[in-house]
Specification:
Radius of gyration: 20 Å
Shape: globular
Helix content: 10-25%
Oligomer: single chain
Strand content: 15-25%
CATH class: Alpha Beta
Number of domains: 1
Number of strands: 19
CATH superfamily: Ribonuclease Z/Hydroxyacylglutathione hydrolase-like
Structural class: alpha/beta
Bound molecules: zinc ion
Length: 346
């Protein structure tokens, strides 16, 4: 091949590469592609009806599962989803709290993939005990992989991706914030950060602890709406801190809890957040202010922008918020990454 021809071929392949980067179908393709080949951070919102389940996949292929829906949903929804994505092992499980709509399916996922000894590095939760069959099944399935996550603890995921715990078991980095027995208020609260992309995931945490989290949260791009959009979560003070461009509500049709609460949706819309729901539930965002996925959907972040797509959603890419998370009260980035200590990857 002549030099001239080789230059033509190089230019051709470069254009091919560019066009593949900007393919409008890329996000939709990714939702069913092998995530090991993905080049971006993926946050899969798996629709388990009334409950939570998130699958996070890093560019280098680390896999984190946060909750797995109610008993039966792990085997019925999550495992098939993992198998569709050729996922046979998990690096970290995080149980947000011990209610069955969050941990009920975790044992089914762990056992269905072959047992914690073979497929799991660590399972983090708030520590302590809880009196339920779902909890006992969860504990049995994770065995000696169980670890207590502490406020301030950072999970390093590689690829410049960090996950920081800002609340667990009623504790914050500043000390005890809640000492009651409301399991929701004991939820693990996490900040996921990838370059300038930030997401807040607070399980079912509520107004009993939200004011205490404001100093440790900050301006985020995506808010996993706490407690399925319940009236007693997503307080105005927290929303004024988070300023989420996008809110994600995980909720089931026909739920008996009235989730999401229409007042909560109004508060989200009032802070200019665009609301995505897995299902319609008890209320939906007003026209033009959100969409119902009617199933699973996907957030793909490259650290500077993020795209949300799903089979019933209009795929949309947004730039990340230039503001960094943390320190709402001071207005300064006084709580820098890294924070306290690192978790070894075993
Ligand atoms: Zn819940």
């Amino acid at each position: 091949m002549s030099k001239k021809n080789s230059r033509v071929y190089l230019a051709f392949y470069f254009l091919l590469y560019l066009s593949s980067c900007h393919s409008p179908n890329r996000q939709q393709t990714n939702i069913s592609s092998n995530p090991a080949t993905a080049s971006h951070l993926e946050i899969h919102i798996i629709d388990v009806g009334q409950g939570d389940c998130f699958l996070i996949i890093t560019p280098s292929g680390k896999k984190i599962i946060i909750d797995a829906g109610n008993t039966g949903r792990g085997a019925g929804f999550v495992l098939p989803y993992l198998k569709d994505h050729n996922i046979s092992s998990i690096d970290y499980i995080i149980a947000s709290h011990f209610h069955s709509d969050h941990i009920g399916g975790l044992d089914e996922v762990v056992n269905g993939l072959g047992g914690s000894t073979h497929i799991l590095s660590a399972a983090f939760d708030r520590g302590g005990n809880y009196d339920s069959g779902a909890f006992r099944d969860y504990i049995k399935s994770i065995g000696d992989k169980r670890k207590t996550i502490s406020p301030g603890q950072m999970i390093e995921l590689g690829d410049d991706i960090k996950m920081k715990c800002i609340a667990s078991n009623g504790d914050t980095p500043g000390g005890k914030a809640y000492s009651g027995t409301d399991e929701n208020a004991l939820s693990v609260v996490l900040l996921l950060k990838y370059r300038t992309f930030d997401m807040y995931l607070g399980g079912d945490s509520n107004s009993a602890i939200e004011p205490s989290l404001v100093p440790y949260a900050g301006d985020v791009d995506v808010y996993k709406v706490s407690h399925h959009g319940s009236a007693t979560s997503s307080t105005q003070r927290l929303l004024d801190c988070l300023k989420p461009e996008v809110s994600v509500i995980t909720v089931g049709d026909g739920n008996t809890y009235g989730h999401p609460n229409s007042g909560t949706i109004s508060r989200l819309v009032a802070v200019n957040s665009y609301v995505y729901q897995t299902e319609s539930g008890a209320a939906v965002p007003p026209p033009g202010k959100g969409e119902i996925a009617n199933g699973n959907f996907l957030i793909i972040a490259d650290g500077y922008s993020y795209t949300i797509s799903g089979s019933s959603l209009v795929s949309k890419t947004r730039p990340t918020d230039s503001s960094q998370a943390f320190a709402c009260l001071t207005g300064k980035h006084s709580r820098q990454w890294p924070f306290l200590f690192l978790v070894s990857e075993n």
